[in-house]
Amino acid sequence: MDAGGNSGGLPVNNKQRAMLPNKAKGEFTRNPRKDSEGLSESPDLEFKYADTDKWAAELSELYSYTEGPEFGLNRKCFEVEFKTHVSDKKWTELDAAQHRAHAMRLLDGLEVIARERRLKAARAILYMAQGTFAECSSEAEVQYWMRYNIFLLLDVGTLSALVELLNMEIDNSAACSSAVRKPAISLADSTDLRVLLNIMYLMVETIQQDDPADKPEWNSIRETFRAELGSPLFNNEPISVMLFGMVTKFCSGHAPHFPMKKVLLLLWKSILFTLGGFEQLLSIKVHRRGELGLPPLPEDSIRVIRSMRAASPPASASDLIDQQQKRARREHKGLIKQDNLDAFNEKDPYKADDSREDEDDNDDNDNSMEPETFPLERDEVMPPPIPHPPSERVSFPKGLPWAPKVREKDIENFLESSRSKFIGYTLGNDTDTVVGLPRPIHESIKTLKQHKYVSIAELQISKEDEFQKTPLSGGEEEVEMSSTELLYQGILPSLPQYMIALLKILLAAAPTSKAKTDSINILADVLPEEMPTTVLQSMKLGVDVNRHKEIIVKAISAILLLLLKHFKLNHIYQFEYMAQHLVFANCIPLILKFFNQNIMSYITAKNGISVIDFPYCVVHELPELTAESLEAGDNTQFCWRNLFSCINLLRILNKLTKWKHSRTMMLVVFKSAPILKRALKVKQAMMQLYVLKLLKVQTKYLGRQWRKSNMKTMSAIYQKVRHRLNDDWAYGNDLDARPWDFQAEECALRANIERFNSRRYDKSHINPDFLPVDNCLQSVLGQRVDLPEDFQMNYDLWLEREVFSKPISWEELLQ
């Protein structure tokens, strides 16, 4: 891909072509690069962020290419069993009663003692869940039969049988010890687990796809399935907690044969299905704000982000060197009239009017670190206007995309500083008294109060403070047993270990990680028993391994983001507990390390072979694979899963650092600014928004020189990120820019979290002083008192010494 972004076969329309530098005029030249490191201009990526990719893509990512031969094996197991009972018909020709009867027979096969027969029954059920593809002629038909068969399997009670078998396999000590002793683990070591996880994943992935044409009974099956997945029905814990246990067991080295990609995918989809995706999160938030009597949200954040346009990325170092060399060569051309300069600089590209012409004309010349090039250097005084059809303007309203927000704390700080300046005294937390302040301050306070935003988290914190202050009069807290609450209670005892395990796997799967002897082996479910012998097989395995790692990163990033968002909405201290353990486990430097690579080449990577993806490969004749076809890859502009992973990781980083000055300083200490600035090369609005947010929080600490040489980035922050009135983010003149004790901030937060968890979940350590007193004599005497064993042995001696040998004055006692 060259500077024009068109050598890679990407479509460039007239508008983008007009934005490209004119090589014929010698505006700048660049060494041809294999990757996109020197890329200053590339087309916008047509990427739509969602909870998941398309259904077919999500199904295909479950299987590694090494598992290809198992499709035929599953089919064979099903047909052998099917032909013994129904010899003259196909599965697709049977009626509903016959379908149900055969499904029940297969379910009975899961309960036999012989392991081999159990595996054959499980493979037959897997073939049903895969849509009995041998009898289908198209992918749409496969998907129809997948839905039908999976609803049938759930209706006959397959889930509980699968969970029991999965529990047996997790506790299978023989398989674990065998895998630990093996020098090289392959697909064959995890066959039983993979079959069970495949069935469960297909169930969750298929059932969460809501189809208006579904029968009413299917809708009730879906809701029952959702409730079962989120409830502690199996081993008194939700299925998600069982899967988290598999992750920690794998990372501890006790079960290196676990197919981790499938476990993580099933964990992600279970959380997504039981708790809800981003659309549901927004509706829960709106509903919760209404219940608490808070004003509605100022805008629909999902809609705003989808309507944003990507900004032109800052210039790369090679561009700047080229510009400086040309300027040195052309300085002898003489002075330029001031009129021409005024005419050229007349347009301000960052007015509130976000019109397309302004940004397009200035995309190449208002670079972050380069001074403006003179008009004569461009062989023209004024750039020619670019015609645009009027329809393009409609979806981009004037002004900034976000309504500004103000916190109560900001209003208090503003009033206190105004009072001490004009009156000479302060009033504490009073935000109403404005006596003695000048008229403009009154107007300022009025504006601030108009944009005041009270979050759910602030109310939860104040309510928790009340419970801690008044444990007796505060009463009992009513905790709604939602799916999020049940999941938090399930993972609470081992949450730190779960976070460390997820980050360990993320580190092993990151493309920037070097292979180390102590790192965990995440390729157990992709490496074949016999290693490849030909170049073609090696290339195919190389693609498979890279794809495998990308899918693991995608699943972990989605799991972490979903949990953080749901916990934050359920209770702020649940979110803070998880976030703090992620920070303690070095999540911040890990994500920065992930982005410290050529991010454009990661996003445009083509680690996929579409002709052997499921379900395409089971309904079409497969063409012969060649080295050329593998190298070419598919003809997509970007890799959906990699862009999705990058956005998720940036959102996680934002969640961890927002309003936490100690963590923001970690971003500064780890020199994240140049890493994040390189990520702006990706022309996708949502990704750029979260990069700019991360740059905004640390701008005040980066120094004047950085701000001066990155004015384009500063302008993009102003244009695209929400404004906090009174937030001096660009200059660092406020209190937060001064030194403070980072450790004290984290320790105070940790103490609050521990008090919350202890009060709400640790019933064994209730303070006896706060327990109600029992005044009923019958009740007190009726209580069972467990006496120690030595007391029982010496009871007669105690009676003699304490009772019989002491004279009792009954008159005094009775009085």
UniProtKB/TrEMBL annotation:
One of its GO terms (biological process) is cytoskeleton organization. It holds the Pfam family N1221. Residues 438-795 form the Far11/STRP C-terminal domain. Transmembrane segments: none annotated. PANTHER family: PROTEIN REQUIRED FOR HYPHAL ANASTOMOSIS HAM-2, STRIATIN-INTERACTING PROTEIN 1. Belongs to the STRIP family. This is Striatin interacting protein 1. It comes from Gasterosteus aculeatus aculeatus.
